[in-house]
Amino acid sequence: MFWSIVRSEWLKFRKSNIWILLLVSPALASLLGILENTKDSSLQWVMLYSNMISIHALLFLPLLTGIFSAFVCRYEHQGGGWKQLLALPVTRAQVFLAKGFLVILFLAITQILFFLCFYLIGTGKGFSEGLPTEIIWRGMIGGWIACLPLAALQLWVSTAWASFAAPLAINVIFTLPNMLVANSSTYGPWYPWVQPFLTMIQKKGDIGSLYVSTETLLFVIVGSFILFLVCGFTYFQKKSV
Fold first, then answer.
1. Closest residue by Cα to residue 200 from 218, 226, 221, 186
2. What would the pLDDT profile of 90-107 be if each residue is shown by its tens digit?
3. Domain residue limits at 150
4. In angstroms, rounded to a whole number, what is the distance separating the alpha carbons of residues 197 and 201?
5. How many distinct structural domains can be found in the chain?
6. Helix 44-55 and helix 18-35: axis angle, to 10°?
């Protein structure tokens, strides 16, 4: 039944504007990558990657978690949609997890599109050195994982508030400080909204599985994901429709 709900939800978005949203961040990051001069660098691929994630992971990827979460709930907030959906032979747990799965899937697609744009730009510029596959894919997967707690939080907020703008406004408020927090050794490791950027950018001498400390991975990313998921799930189970 879970996958039936996922397929049903997927059909809702076939003719929606969600596909344009998937392209926004990769497209804007690509524009920055095209304009950036990396010809004289001995690390052309890494420089291009770092420049592109400065806008993709620092701003747009955290924002998209809120947009996708609000988008998957918008139809149910209109015309008694929650009552119609939950009147079907489905459980609330299946509905909540299916919507969460779609948000996570949209974020994964965004990451894949970003990588494709990055690769095409580097190839188009004629970069002679080999693509640092390990560095790039660790960043791609790390950035996606770091979005999971934000997706869980925003899905919780989106199921609670009928307004499409409210969850987005909250995400904007907490995402904008990223430009300051990212450079802070005190607050950066503990601020959830900046983790997509920190997990995508390599640090000097970093040999861990992700580009963040074990404490940040366990407490900020994994811990907050579990906390927000449980809180959102519990709220949805008791939500009055």
1. 221
2. 899 999 999 999 999 999
3. 2-238
4. 6
5. 1
6. 130
